[in-house]
Amino acid sequence: MPEINILDKHVAELIAAGEVVERPASVVKELMENSIDAGATLITVEIRRGGITYIRITDNGCGIDRSNIKKAFISHATSKISSADDLDSILTLGFRGEALASMAAVARVEMLTRAESEEIGTRYLIEGSQEVLLDDAGCPKGTTIVVRDLFFNTPARMKFLKKDVTEANAVAGVVDRIALSHPEVCVRFIREGKEVLSTPGDGKIQSAIHAIFGKEFSQGLISCEYELNGIKVSGFISKPVHARANRTMQFFFLNGRLIKTRTAMAALEQAYKNAIMVGKFPACVLNISIPPMAVDVNVHPAKTEVRFADEKKIFDAVYYCAKLALESGDTRPQMSFEAKAQMKVVSQSMPQPPKAEQTFLNLNLRKPAPAATEQKKDTSAHAEPVKINEVEKEPVPKPVERVFKVESGEKPNQNIQSDDDLLLNNPTISKVVIAEETVKLPVIEETPIEEKEEAVITEKLTPPETETEAPATVFVEPFRVIGEAFKTYILVEQGDKMLVIDKHAAHERMIFNSLKKEQDNVQSQMLLTPVTITLSKEEYNALLENTDILLKAGYAVEDFGQGMVIVTECPTFIESGDIEPVVIELAGYLADNKKDLIPEKLDWIYHSTACRAAIKAGDKTTAYEQQKFVEQLLSLPDVRYCPHGRPVMIEMSKKELEKNFGRI
């Protein structure tokens, strides 16, 4: 166990603003970082009521000997540095010596610890910075710290805490990030008596990713490793097809410490340029290893922001690492034919249908009722069976002249070429005798094709009888659809002007208005197969806090545990393939705009839904669809701008066209 030093005032003043215990998540972060600095390979985190009433961190690190326990709870007491020069080469996660002192000031803290050189452990109690107990205790090598009743003596700070589930999700997010940054450490997380996370601690980043985010997320990643100018970048990046709607699943670690760096984010996204859809962002878990002298980690109270000596070197290392990984690891999707092979085996084992059935299917004839297929068999030895061609590929025999006896109907016996001719020319015939054999035929009454089509059209145009009031109509000046330009703009001639319609913008506004009109009663559809979505803990918590708002917008979202949600219903406008990106986008917005009013949140959700559901530029539309679309658009005079504010239609008069061509 290294010696704990109380820093001189001069050294303490060089350290940035001290860490303040704001919520249970910050307590867990500091204690887990201390465990990792102590060389622990196994860390267990347990919380109750979101960590407000109970937090316990247990590790198998080096422990603290009894002579240093009291000093550990003094402000600016740390074993990580001893002089001002040490600030230029920090390799540990903690170095300020304020965490334990800050916790002891606002909570009841109990420590059980034993160093490897000691035979008996120590139990130490401190409440509100006041020492309560220091005694012997039996415990294994390592340290266990229990923090109870956070902010028990500062009720003004207690009221700023959120619901238990929100605080617990924040703690889970901290545990996830530390487990990702140190895959060599086995991390267990127990929440309300139930283990919700256990990483293997085998040193493999992919194992930690699989344990935290699940199989589906980990399978969409590409491994990468690259070194440039003494900077090593390693980890995993997502395949372009698995890009997400926001940056919440981008994790950058610097020498094992989670950081926020715009330089690395820009480099990563630049590497994906021309390989990813606009508005999408890659996911990543990248660890940047850099000499400690080339970075300053003492610039932010939470130590999440750092200052690099050379930003360009960081940019280049991350860029080339991601670029090379995409070129070598992003393979084309593979198609498996295993399902077809299985289907073939099944079809071979199935009994073959009778030949008569095969004849019906091969000839594509109407299948008669079961009673009509029965034949009266003649016992006479002179009777000849009726033969029908069973396979289309077989040569058809030359038609011969045969005599058919009609027993019903008014048509007399006559010479015809085939059975089909007789049936087609005489739809009222119900029985035919061929030689001495009788075949019963069904009476088929069909409506001529022209009459059928007319009946269908009449049915579509005739309003239902149940409607008592006709909807209000808007007069639409006659128009003619000229065509479509660039599969994006519909060209329309109307009177003495030409209209250019942006079909995506117009359709988006029409859907948005429809959702607003149906507010609190949006038509939704139940999904045959619910969609499971993996989110970051911040997005996960934000989504669960706003399930009522999402339900008003047509989305039924339920908690699936461990950072995953399950979507069982969605608005009828949304296609199944758009559900996951839409929900991820909604979760990102709700996480970043927690203070927005409910009407503002609903408007944003309607807007996002409409944008996803609307027809896209480049989608093919038929002439009939264009006609109906323009007809509906021109009957809605309030549709002028899309929800983004772009115009949906531009008018150009005939006079202006002629003027540009020099006709006037």
Task: Write up this protein.
The protein is an alpha+beta fold. It has three domains: 5-198, Heat Shock Protein 90, CATH 3.30.565.10; 220-329, Ribosomal Protein S5, domain 2 (2-Layer Sandwich), CATH 3.30.230.10; 480-650, Ribosomal Protein S8, Chain: A, domain 1, CATH 3.30.1370. It is built from 21 helices and 29 strands. Strands 7-6-5-8-3-2-9-10 form an eight-stranded mixed β-sheet. The radius of gyration is 38 Å and the shape is elongated. The model is unreliable at 13-19, 339-394, 396-417, 427-442 and 449-471 (pLDDT under 50).
What structural keywords apply?
single chain, 664 residues, alpha+beta, Heat Shock Protein 90, Ribosomal Protein S8, Chain: A, domain 1, 3 domains, 5-stranded mixed beta sheet, 21 helices, 24% strand, elongated
The CATH class of the largest domain, by name, is Alpha Beta
Gyration radius (Cα, Å) is 38 Å
Structural class: alpha+beta
Provide the CATH superfamily of the largest domain: Histidine kinase-like ATPase, C-terminal domain
Strand fraction equals: 15-25%
Specify the oligomeric state.
single chain
Q: Give the biggest sheet.
A: 8 strands, mixed
Instruction: Count every beta strand, where a strand is a DSSP E run of 2 or more residues.
Output: 29
Mean pLDDT: 77
Q: Could you give the topology of this structure?
A:
Layout: E1 5-6, H1 9-14, H2 24-37, E2 42-48, E3 54-59, H3 66-72, E4 77-78, H4 99-106, E5 108-114, E6 121-127, E7 130-137, E8 142-148, H5 155-158, H6 164-181, E9 186-191, E10 194-198, H7 205-213, H8 215-219, E11 221-228, E12 231-238, E13 250-254, E14 257-259, H9 262-271, E15 284-289, E16 295-296, E17 307-308, H10 311-329, H11 338-349, H12 355-363, E18 375-376, E19 402-406, E20 414-416, H13 419-425, E21 431-434, E22 437-440, H14 449-461, E23 480-485, E24 489-494, E25 497-502, H15 503-517, E26 524-534, H16 537-545, H17 547-552, E27 556-561, E28 564-571, H18 579-592, H19 598-613, H20 623-634, E29 649-653, H21 654-660
Parallel strand pairs: 2-9, 13-15
Antiparallel strand pairs: 1-4, 2-3, 3-8, 5-6, 5-8, 6-7, 9-10, 11-12, 12-15, 13-14, 16-17, 18-22, 19-20, 19-21, 21-22, 23-24, 24-25, 25-29, 26-28, 27-28
